[in-house]
Amino acid sequence: MAKHILVVDDDALMRRSISFKLEQSGYRASTAVSAEDALALARRDRPDLILLDIGLPGMDGMEALRHFQNEIENVPVIFVSARRRELDTILGLELGADDYITKPFNPDVLLAHVKAVLRRTAAPAPEPGERPLPITVGDLIIDPAAHTVHVAGQQLDLPAKEFAVLYTLAQEAGYVVAMDDLLNRVWGAEFLGEPQVVYVHVRWLREKIEEDPQKPQRLLTVRGVGYKLVPHEVSKE
Amino acid sequence: MAKHILVVDDDALMRRSISFKLEQSGYRASTAVSAEDALALARRDRPDLILLDIGLPGMDGMEALRHFQNEIENVPVIFVSARRRELDTILGLELGADDYITKPFNPDVLLAHVKAVLRRTAAPAPEPGERPLPITVGDLIIDPAAHTVHVAGQQLDLPAKEFAVLYTLAQEAGYVVAMDDLLNRVWGAEFLGEPQVVYVHVRWLREKIEEDPQKPQRLLTVRGVGYKLVPHEVSKE
DNA sequence: AAAATCGCTCAGAATCTTTTCAGGATGGGA
DNA sequence: TCCCATCCTGAAAAGATTCTGAGCGATTTT
Lengths: 237, 237
Prior knowledge:
The structure is a homodimer. Chain A is built from 8 helices and 12 strands. By secondary structure, chain A is of the alpha/beta class. In chain A, the strands form 3 sheets. Chain A has a 5-stranded parallel beta sheet with strand order 2-1-3-4-5, with helices on both faces. A 4-stranded antiparallel beta sheet of chain A has the order 6-7-8-9, covered by helices on one side. In chain A, strand 11 and strand 12 form a beta hairpin. Chain A is elongated and about 60 Å long. The relative contact order of chain A is 0.09. The structure holds a DNA duplex.
């Protein structure tokens, strides 16, 4: 069964080209010019995914998002932000969008996001209000909900970025996370700065979670590839 | 190896200064005066990124963009627009390019955008379920996701190139991989160096995975052809 | 206001990898 | 057996990557 995707954008050309691309890829696309229209449409014919432009006249994106999530059960929403505006994207994600993408974007990239979100939301029905679970890696416990980290029993306070790095690595515990991946996931795809930031944050992290930061046991670098977080049990005597 | 960037602009000075900056930063740049030329060139030598001027005579930017995206698989494109004015006209069609930048621009800013686009298009988020699986060959276990190798229970850390060689051989375990194949798959088709590098890496590898590097049991050379990786169970006493 | 924190950049140093080089071994066909 | 392309070896050069310490704004805390 073809997934139904609702495209909400006030720009006609945009609507047309997005829905063209989607249909070409086997989805069923419907379009709406405004959030109001979109809501009406969605109530009649529940979409599996909504592509929502933020810069809508009338009801704005944020508000629309709230309505969608109240009225339509469990609909993933991808924000499409009109300009490079970090604020939008961050706010959108905190408000509950499942993903975002900023214009201009490559149609293939859009498609990739659509697929990813559909896959992610399809499998494990995420209970609303369910908190992300803490991740344990050896004697490390990283709790994203509480934003806390425990190392060998001790609680740690980490700045936001450091936490994000650690959490990202923890999600792939045991596996290497490539430098680029790390940058994309922690700093976002729009990040224009130097990749060296990673070194610095890793260093600070190590100063906090490693016994001997010079000889990391938990947060290892895989030269030429990236970093990985591995379990480390305290050696017992 | 060095990423290939295709610069399309009808202004010679522009072409030269952009490609100079790119090459100076370690990229391989080629240039084209027109969209037609660019297409021809791109078909012969697939670029990793295209910097496309919008205000081209002849085939215009949008049309060129469409051609590129149809004909060249998955090529990210950055629009370079001559004026704010022009940009507005395409902002209506924000679908298509991966990024844009307006003239005049600071070369460093251009570079930052190039890097960012390459980064975000390079790494396809490694979905947890889609990690490459470890390969077992005798008492060797090669796990690309963790970037680890186990020989008879012992964990090994291998540098990137060595790992790549081993992994490539492991993928064809039991069969010979020709020298040329190995070079292509590990070093890429555009490798200009001496094929001797392979000997050296094989040697490093043998020193790590063979009990007696002089008498290889796992990584065998097939004279005149290449190398092969074969299972080797430790003889038990 | 001063002080502390955070995120980032920078440049030089330290480290590790990769390649090259030159000579020596080796093995298989003539 | 002899020869020669093919491989191997050790060492050194060349190249990349990562680590460090320091410093700078911006923001928040005191």
